[in-house]
Amino acid sequence: MGDQMRIGIVGLGTISDAYLRTLPRLENLDLVAVADLDPMRAEACAERREGVRALALPELYEAEDVDLVLNLTIPAAHAEVALAAIAGGKHVYGEKPLALNTVEARGILSSAADAGVRVGCAPDTVLGTGVQTARAGLDAGLIGAPVAATAFMVTPGHERWHPAPEFYYRTGGGPLLDMGPYYLTALVTLLGPVRRVVGMASTPRSSRTIGSGPRAGTSFGVEVATHVTGVLEHDGGALSTLVTSFDVWAGHLPRIEIYGTEGSLSVPDPNGFDGSVQVFRGKEPSWLDVGVNGGYPSASRGFGIADLARAIADGTPHRANGELAFHVLDVMESLLAAAESGAAVTVSSTCDRPAAVPARTRERSGRF
Predict the structure, then answer these.
(1) Residue-level pLDDT at 314
(2) Is residue 248 part of a domain?
(3) The domain that contains 76 carries what CATH number?
(4) Which of 68, 194, 334, 362 could form a disulfide with 91 if both were Cys (CB 3.0 to 4.6 A apart)?
């Protein structure tokens, strides 16, 4: 690999637009190829971008000028695409979750280790200035020792805006598997890995109705829990309360708050990259803004890939890595198992807390 990591995208659905906007900004990445089950969609994407060609899936996996496959398929295809890319000698970076379950995810990590390639996985939102500024504050002892945290993601459901939302309500979807990775990855980044969970889950509605697009008014069945709540015990002893729901019309709940022995920290929505971090301490009895003190500025989806490319060049671990994504998937799987059994479940995996992103880290000419 030269100065740039050459990227091939598999899957050109809704989320691909965000990556396609970001990749040209990142000087250590070069988009060279795209592929989709719909060849016409790939052709249309390639025609709009100079130097990008549309390939069939097998061609992209074997292309000599593709260093990394960006896997933007639906969750049910994540493992299949990742394994095919790894078999072709490519690094892999995928949308969350890493796979439908930990068995598939372990296969991805094992195959990558055997092939000597790296695995990265969304979300990379935790690399932005929001979560990283909160991380810097925690590491500096801004609120003392962390005691507890809360994380809330509530919405009435993605079928209201997505034109083809069925996969959100199939295996690998639901509010926990779809949105939980943003919140859990942030909690692990802030407080470290999770060792034990308890939880409960429900499915209040057995069907949903598409609210927009050409299929508006079409109803479909729900196969997963759409309201999941749990308590997570982190290795350091802090207890996080997590709520994810596709059954709540609105709420005033905080996205994430961390509670310490000397104060509280308000963390912005981990589904975004920036936002204000606020702190409350007993000696200063009001919420105060914390100035940006960490993270990639002006980040957007795709920065995790650039961080991976830079780590390969520097010979260091990348932050949005497969082991972290596996642990987050394991936590979610364990939480659903706890909800089904009614008992606490020990999380079998762990991971390293990713390295912090220092303040004022910026894109550099020729590499990230």
Answers:
(1) 94
(2) yes
(3) 3.40.50.720
(4) 68
